[in-house]
Design a protein that fits this description.
Elements: E1 4-5, E2 11-12, H1 59-68, H2 73-87, E3 96-99, H3 104-115, E4 121-126, H4 133-144, E5 148-152, H5 156-170, H6 175-192, E6 196-199, H7 217-224, E7 235-236, E8 239-240, H8 241-247, H9 252-255, H10 263-267, E9 272-275, H11 276-279, H12 284-294, H13 319-330, H14 334-344, H15 350-360, H16 369-376, H17 380-389, E10 396-399, E11 402-405
Parallel strand pairs: 3-4, 4-5, 6-9
Antiparallel strand pairs: 1-2, 7-8, 10-11
Helix pairs in contact: 3-12, 14-15
Bound molecules: zinc ion.
Length: about 400
């Protein structure tokens, strides 16, 4: 990837748009990566970002408008019922897979599929790096509210090594988790021969421009398959699989859960990969209330560092670093993500959202910092060096030892 420059000659990293723009309706900027990127198994591919239209509004806000006005939800629900009628089992077999952690979204999705629509879901969980106490408690409550579950806990030695490499090479410590999670539900579905897979929220909620392709075959190929199965061209944590084997003492079995499928493997499986949020109008706060009521879900007693919310993504102690590294690379922290979503769902207005971003977006997640460093096996010195060298000059400026964003939604 050749780096570009801004008009003022500032370097632009990661293939991001050189000119920073903020959405007129929410607090998101055009530096936000696509929420469900295609599989890019090389470290040099430019980042695809959220689409902004000519009126300066992001695609997630446009989708929120459609949810409120033009989508016929009655028709969509009928489509859901037709689909479920085709798959519902009457003989004790599982008839759908719901991947998730037992958080509010998978709690809501699995419970409503089972109790309102009479399905028989098998839930599948790809374990967090380090369970938080509340995350483990919520996971247990979910199962005890009436679900069979397969928990896949990856090889800890391999997972922490890949996480470290992804942090050091890409400043994306969550990449191995994301890949493992992406494939876990599908791999179990294939093993049990359950073609119907349900996620909760649709990626369109967060500005995925290729969602319409979920209804087409193109999406599944982009999402689950790699063009090549050559270990020299597939990268994990910024290192080719070939080098992971050669230089880090791993073998192909160690990496199997992170690897994309081949066209051939997936091609013969009649997968129906669906988002419940496509069929019924999704509201994260309502999903939260529903999960509290029905699957024993509990929010945290205190707000999550870097934001003001208490109930989203709280099951993994390392999760705050996923958002913090996003803040460093794209200038968008966790409060931005929460506020943008709440503006779209009419929980707060834009002015309140801007104030929340100003107050919390920059906050460093110190609570599990030591555990995160220990998990990856790196020093604090190395952590800080990687953080600072990942800052793109078009987003950040250093002023007497303090880093400052050049562009923020609040100035
Ligand atoms: Zn927006």
């Amino acid at each position: 990837m050749s780096d570009t420059m801004t008009k003022d000659g500032l370097l632009v990293k990661y293939g991001l748009p050189a000119e920073v723009k903020f959405c007129k309706k929410c607090v998101l900027s055009n530096q936000r990566p696509q929420p469900k990127p295609e599989i890019k198994y090389t470290p040099n591919t430019p980042q695809e970002t959220t689409f902004f239209d000519e009126e300066g509004v992001c695609s997630a806000c446009r989708y929120a408008e459609m949810k409120d006005s033009s989508i016929d939800w009655g028709k969509r629900e009928k489509g859901l019922i037709d689909l479920l009628d085709r798959y519902r089992s009457g003989d004790g077999r599982y008839d759908c897979v719901v991947p998730g952690s037992g958080g509010k979204d998978s709690g809501f999705a699995s419970h409503i599929l089972k109790n309102k629509y009479g399905m028989h879901p098998l839930t599948v969980t790809w374990a967090p790096h380090i369970y938080s106490d509340i995350g483990w408690k919520n996971f247990q409550s979910w199962i005890h509210s009436g679900f069979d579950n397969i928990l896949i806990t990856p090889n800890g030695k391999v997972h922490s090594l890949l996480t470290k490499l992804a942090f050091v090479n890409l400043l994306h410590p969550f990449q191995p988790f994301v890949f493992g999670q992406r494939f876990a539900g599908l791999r179990i579905a294939m093993k049990f021969n359950i073609p119907l897979i349900f996620h909760g929220e649709s990626p369109f909620e967060y500005g995925c421009s290729s969602l319409k392709e979920t209804e087409e075959s193109g999406f599944r190929k982009k999402y689950f398959c790699s063009e090549s199965s050559d270990p020299a061209s597939i990268y994990l944590g910024g290192v080719s699989v070939k080098d992971l084997v050669k230089e880090h003492g791993l073998d192909m079995n160690d990496l199997a859960m992170y690897m994309p499928l081949t066209d051939k493997e997936l091609g013969s499986f009649p997968m129906e990969y669906k988002f419940l949020g496509y069929y019924i109008k999704w509201d994260p706060q309502e999903a939260y209330y529903y999960a509290v009521e029905n699957t024993g879900f509990e929010g945290n007693v205190e707000r999550t560092e870097g934001t003001y919310s208490k109930y989203a993504s709280i099951d993994d102690k390392t999760d705050p670093f996923h958002y913090y590294t996003s803040y460093i690379k794209f200038g968008l922290g966790r409060a931005t993500m929460d506020a943008a979503q709440e503006i779209r769902n009419h929980k707060i207005n834009r002015e309140e959202g801007v104030a929340l971003v100003r107050k919390y977006d920059h906050e460093f997640p110190s609570k599990f910092y030591g555990e995160f460093l220990h998990y990856m096996g790196i020093s604090e010195e190395m952590f800080l060096e990687r953080i600072d060298s990942a800052r793109s000059p078009h987003l950040w400026v250093e002023d007497r030892g303090t880093w400052k964003l050049r562009h923020a939604v609040f100035y």
